[in-house]
Design brief:
By secondary structure, the protein is mostly helical. 66% of the residues lie in helices and 1% in strands. The chain is built from 14 helices and two strands. Strands 1-2 form a two-stranded antiparallel sheet. The longest helix is centred in the middle third of the chain and has 36 residues. The chain starts with 37 loop residues before the first helix and ends in an 11-residue tail after the last helix.
Length: 485
C-alpha cells in the first residue's frame, strides 16, 4: 500500500517522481487500491472503442472532401452514412461515455450497484445496435444537427439505450452519497455534477420537443426540430465537462486547487442555470420561432461569457504556479493538453462570431469547439489510467503524450481554419462527393487546408488510441506495488 497519498508523473521508464506535494491539503488523492473501479474502467473502454471506430470513419470523411478525389465518387450517401455514425460515436458516445467514466469516480474506489452496471451494459448494447443498423438496407441517413440519425428502428433503439445508460450512470453518481477515499478535487467534482445536470436538462428538453411535434412531418424536419433544443443543451454538458477537465489538469500539474469550492459552484451554476429553462421553449409547440431562436440565443450568449471567465482564472493559476514561465513545466503533457484545449476553444469562439450563412464556417466553428472538448478528454485520459490502475505495468512516456496532444491541437486547428476559409468563399455545408462543387481558388485552398489538418488530427488520434489500447490491455496484466517510506 501507499504510505501516503501520492501523485505520479508520466512514466519515463525510471523511478516514478512526485508531481505535487503529497502533504498539501489540496493535492489530488490517488487511492492505492484498484478495487471498485470496474464500472469506471468499463465506461472508459467503451469511450475508447467508440473513438476507434469514429476515427476510422473520420479518415473516410476527410478523403471525401478532398477536391478531385471527391469527384470520382458518385454516391454521396456513402459519406453521409459515415458522417452519421462518426458524429454519433465521436460526439454522443465518446463525450458522454468519457464523462460517465469520470463521474463514476465521484464515490472514490467503492463498489458500484446494479444501476451502474445496468447503465454500462445498456450503453454497450446501444452502441452495438447503432453500428449494426448503420449497414441495414433501406436505412436513410438524416443529417440533423447535434444528433444525426439513421432512420431505422435498430439505430433509434440503440440511441435510446445509449442515452438511457448514461442517464443511469449520471443519476446514480448524483444521488448516491460520496463514500471512500476522494479521487477528484472538489472543483472538478462540481464541474462533473454540473455536466450531469445539464445532460438531464437536455433529455427533458428533447422529450418536451417530442411532445410538441405534429404528426406527419418529413423525417428530416422531425429529427431536426426534435434534437435542436436538447442538442444545444448537450453542448452545455460538454462545456461543463471541458471546464472540469481543465481544473483537473491544472490541479494535477500544480498540486493546488485552481478555484475554491464556492467559486466553482458559482461558476458552474452560472453556466447551467439559464439552460434549465430550455424545456419551456416548447411551451407553444416545437415548430415555432420561439423554440428555434430561443435555443440558439441561449447557446450564443449563455456559454462563452462563463467560459472566458473560467479560462482567465485558469490562466492566472497557471501563471502564478509557474506552469507557463518555466519551459520544463510548460512542456508537461497536462499543461500542453490544457493550453491546446483552451486555444481551440478560443478559435471556436472567433470562427463562430463570423458565421453569417449556412456554409462550412459552421462546421469550422463546430470542429474547433468539439476538438477542445476532445483534447481535454485526451489529456485527462492519461491521468485517468493512473487513478483506476495506479500500478499498471506500462505507461506512455511524457514525450509520447506531449507530442500526441500537440499534434492533435495543431491538426484540429488547421482543420477548422480550412473549413472556415472555404466557407467564407462560399463552400456549401453538408455536401460530399459529386454534390460538392468547388467554384473558386479560395474554396480549393480552404478545403485543401482542411484536408491537411484533418489528416494530422487523424494521425494524432491513432497515436492516442494506440496508447489507450495498450493501457487498457495492461490493466489485466500482473501489477507491482509502489510504496513510499
Amino acid at each position: 500500500m501507499l504510505a501516503r497519498p501520492l501523485t505520479l508523473s508520466f512514466s519515463t521508464g525510471t523511478t516514478p517522481t512526485v508531481r505535487a506535494d503529497p502533504a498539501s491539503p489540496t493535492a489530488v488523492l490517488t487511492p492505492a487500491s484498484e478495487a471498485g473501479f470496474g464500472i469506471a474502467r468499463g465506461w472508459f473502454a467503451l469511450s475508447i472503442a467508440s473513438l476507434v471506430i469514429a476515427g476510422l470513419l473520420a479518415l473516410a470523411l476527410v478523403v471525401g472532401r478532398i477536391p478531385i478525389i471527391s469527384d470520382w465518387i458518385a454516391d454521396p450517401l456513402f459519406f453521409k452514412r459515415c458522417l452519421v455514425v462518426h458524429v454519433v460515436l465521436a460526439l454522443v458516445v465518446w463525450f458522454h461515455a468519457s464523462a460517465a467514466a469520470w463521474i463514476s469516480l465521484l464515490r472514490g474506489g467503492t463498489q458500484k450497484g446494479s444501476a451502474d452496471r445496468g447503465g454500462l451494459f445498456a450503453a454497450v448494447a446501444g452502441v452495438a445496435l447503432m453500428v449494426f443498423s448503420g449497414a441495414a438496407r433501406g436505412a436513410t441517413p438524416i443529417l440533423s444537427n447535434y444528433v444525426p440519425v439513421v432512420d431505422h428502428p435498430l439505430f433509434l433503439a440503440g440511441l435510446a439505450l445509449c442515452f438511457g445508460g448514461v442517464a443511469l450512470c449520471f443519476g446514480s453518481a448524483l444521488l448516491a452519497p460520496a463514500t471512500g477515499l476522494p479521487v477528484l478535487p472538489p472543483e472538478t467534482a462540481t464541474g462533473l455534477r454540473a455536466s450531469a445536470v445539464a445532460f438531464f436538462a437536455a433529455l427533458v428538453t428533447t422529450f418536451a420537443a417530442l411532445g410538441g411535434l405534429p404528426a406527419g412531418l418529413p423525417a428530416e424536419t422531425f429529427y431536426e426540430f426534435l434534437f435542436w433544443g436538447g442538442g444545444h443543451v448537450l453542448q452545455v454538458a460538454n462545456v461543463c465537462a471541458l471546464l472540469a477537465l481543465w481544473l483537473f489538469l491544472l490541479h494535477r500539474a500544480s498540486g493546488r486547487a485552481v478555484l475554491s469550492p464556492r467559486v466553482a459552484v458559482v461558476g458552474f451554476a452560472a453556466l447551467v442555470a439559464p439552460h434549465l429553462a430550455a424545456p419551456l421553449l416548447t411551451i407553444n409547440g416545437t415548430m415555432t420561432q420561439f423554440y428555434h431562436e430561443g435555443a440558439t440565443l441561449l447557446m450564443r450568449w449563455g456559454i462563452f461569457p462563463v467560459v472566458l471567465v473560467m479560462l482567465a482564472l485558469c490562466l492566472r493559476h497557471a501563471w502564478r504556479e509557474g506552469l507557463l514561465a518555466d519551459a520544463a513545466r510548460c512542456a508537461d503533457p497536462l499543461v500542453v493538453g490544457f493550453l491546446g484545449s483552451a486555444g481551440l476553444t478560443l478559435l471556436g469562439f472567433v470562427i463562430g462570431a463570423t458565421i453569417h450563412r449556412a456554409d462550412t464556417v459552421i462546421p469550422g466553428h463546430y470542429h474547433a469547439s468539439i476538438g477542445a472538448v476532445t483534447l481535454a478528454f485526451m489529456a485527462g485520459a492519461y491521468e485517468f489510467s493512473r487513478v483506476v490502475a495506479p500500478h499498471a505495468t506500462w505507461r506512455p512516456t511524457a514525450r509520447w503524450a506531449r507530442t500526441q496532444l500537440a499534434l492533435f491541437a495543431i491538426g484540429q486547428s488547421v482543420f477548422a481554419l480550412g473549413f472556415a476559409l472555404a466557407g467564407h468563399f462560399g463552400a456549401g455545408r453538408k455536401t460530399y462527393a459529386s454534390e460538392q462543387q468547388v467554384r473558386s481558388a479560395g474554396e480549393l485552398a480552404g478545403l485543401g487546408l482542411m484536408s491537411f489538418g484533418g489528416l494530422i488530427a487523424v494521425v494524432s488520434g491513432v497515436v492516442f488510441l494506440v496508447a489507450m489500447v495498450r493501457l487498457i490491455a495492461a490493466w489485466r496484466r500482473p501489477t507491482f506495488s509502489v510504496s513510499t517510506p
